[in-house]
């Protein structure tokens, strides 16, 4: 989100604080619901003969779509419960800290990109209906988060490493 919204110097100057925080929380709720839904769909497929009417992938995608809806609903209720009656500065502070957290912003970008790709791929597949499109987007967002974690871990290994001895001239690239 930091690419689209300005991150001011002070939290009191943060604009769109309700929108920023709500978008973030609902996005995380959808991610969590998609992951749990896919796990549930896979487990149900393995444990129930009735669930094997569909292929494993379709079962996981459809369950993930339901999980996205439920996870987003639960995140909505939790956000309303947590922030009910809070002052505007509390909304601004939380959204200001979110925009200032670079790793969180990169996770959001990768997750949203994965959701877009997954949603498009789910939309071109016939027979999955709304749960398939939403489930594909949800799985895509989870894959985006995993992709970011792998990318950041691999990228982090290319840093500078200290070699034993004189630390002033012993920096080498690994």
UniProtKB/TrEMBL annotation:
<dbReference type="Pfam" id="PF08560">
    <property type="entry name" value="DUF1757"/>
</dbReference>
<keyword id="KW-1133">Transmembrane helix</keyword>
<feature type="transmembrane region" description="Helical">
    <location>
        <begin position="63"/>
        <end position="85"/>
    </location>
</feature>
<keyword id="KW-0812">Transmembrane</keyword>
<keyword id="KW-0472">Membrane</keyword>
<dbReference type="InterPro" id="IPR013869">
    <property type="entry name" value="DUF1757"/>
</dbReference>
<protein>
    <submittedName>
        <fullName>Uncharacterized protein</fullName>
    </submittedName>
</protein>
<feature type="transmembrane region" description="Helical">
    <location>
        <begin position="130"/>
        <end position="151"/>
    </location>
</feature>
